[in-house]
Specification:
The protein is mainly alpha-helical. The chain contains 4 helices and 2 strands. The chain has a two-stranded antiparallel ribbon.
C-alpha cells in the first residue's frame, strides 16, 4: 500500500467498490473472524487517545442527570451518536493501518485456514473486473 494522499476520485471509486454486497459481505466475514482482536486494538486506541477519560464520565452524568425526560433522551442520543462516530473514525484508522501492515494485498489463506465464500449458485461481482460469476460447489 502506497504512503500517499488519495484523491477524492480514488476514494469515491474505492467506496463504490466496497459497497458491492459481495465485497461488503466478504469484509464483514473477515471482521467477524477477527472481531475480538480488533476490539482489543480499538479499546487500547480509544484509551490511549484519552477519549473516555473523566471528561467523558462527566458528560454521561450530565446527559443522564437531566430532569426533563425529553432533554435527557436527547442528550443521551447525542452522546451515543458522538461515541459511535468516534469509534467508527478510530476503527477506520485501525483499518488503514491493518491494510498497510498486510501490504494492501488480499491475503492467500494458509493451508487449513478458514475462508468464506458465497453459497453455491449465488451471483457475485468480481471486485476487479465487475463481471458476474456464479459460485459452484
Amino acid at each position: 500500500m502506497a504512503d500517499r494522499a488519495y484523491t477524492d476520485a480514488e476514494l469515491d471509486a474505492a467506496i463504490a467498490a466496497i459497497s458491492d454486497p459481495a465485497r461488503l459481505r466478504q469484509a464483514q466475514d473477515v471482521v467477524m473472524r477477527t472481531a475480538p482482536a480488533l476490539q482489543r486494538v480499538l479499546a487500547v486506541a480509544l484509551d490511549e487517545g484519552g477519549w473516555f477519560d473523566p471528561g467523558h464520565d462527566q458528560a454521561v452524568r450530565d446527559a443522564t442527570g437531566r430532569d426533563d425526560p425529553g432533554d435527557r433522551a436527547r442528550e443521551v442520543r447525542t452522546l451515543l451518536a458522538e461515541e459511535t462516530r468516534l469509534g467508527m473514525l478510530v476503527g477506520v484508522a485501525i483499518g488503514f493501518e491493518l491494510a498497510q501492515e498486510l501490504g494492501g494485498e488480499p491475503s492467500t489463506p494458509s493451508p487449513g485456514e478458514q475462508t468464506t465464500s458465497p453459497p453455491a449458485g449465488e451471483q457475485t461481482t468480481s471486485p476487479r473486473a465487475g463481471e458476474q460469476t456464479t459460485q459452484e460447489d
